[in-house]
Structure prediction request, 259 residues.
Amino acid sequence: MIRAVLFDLDETLILDHPVSLHALRSCAFYAASWYSLDIPRLIQAAEENAVRLWRASPVFDYTQRIGHSAGEGLWARYEVQTHPALKILHDWAPAFRVAVWRESLDEQGVHDDALCEALAHRYLSERRLYPRYPEIDRLLKALSGYRLGIVTNGVPDLQREKLEGCLLQDRFDAVAVSGELDIGKPEPGIFEQICKELGVEPSECVMVGDNPERDVAGAAGVGMKSVWVERGFKPKDPRYKADLEVSNLLEMLPWLETL
Prediction:
């Protein structure tokens, strides 16, 4: 019998990539108001340079372990420092954000340190939007008879800020954040922790997420059933087969009733 339904956060309950793209576009159009620029090229360069520079982070291995990405590094505050690496990121990230824009603009022959600083701050502001996927309210209402939890990778203050910003923090019985626990999906510990908080066994849970490796494989590793939601940003991975595949989370309701 299924007693609890667990959810990933980014790109499962709330939009992530589209909002990041919105912030990049806003920055690129602002830069283009000062210089003649190829805007799509600037956006692509910023994405690529962010990933490349992120890999040179002094705590890159830590960020990989808890599932914290280069894109998030462009706007995380790192004010909650549950691990020494977060203090390092707090001090390192401001220069990283400026360097992303400096190197991206350099590719088009623009050298303007003041503009790079402005773009780094603009991204911080523009990225702070937290739209929910449109079916989420109906879904949570339909799941009122279940214990509900969130299992999310990321740094503490950023993931909590997302929850508060999308007004979901009070709709769930428990939340497990990798940066708070120092355990990231797909490791068993983060799933075991949410089960402990909810008072259920893994076999009584369904895990719902968009990441085949972290959500689907992680759930299977502790004996949970899983639902993979296809949002268009992470491809299906035949190595990790979910018990159900959907493109809209409401599609899981009839299947859930059979369990």
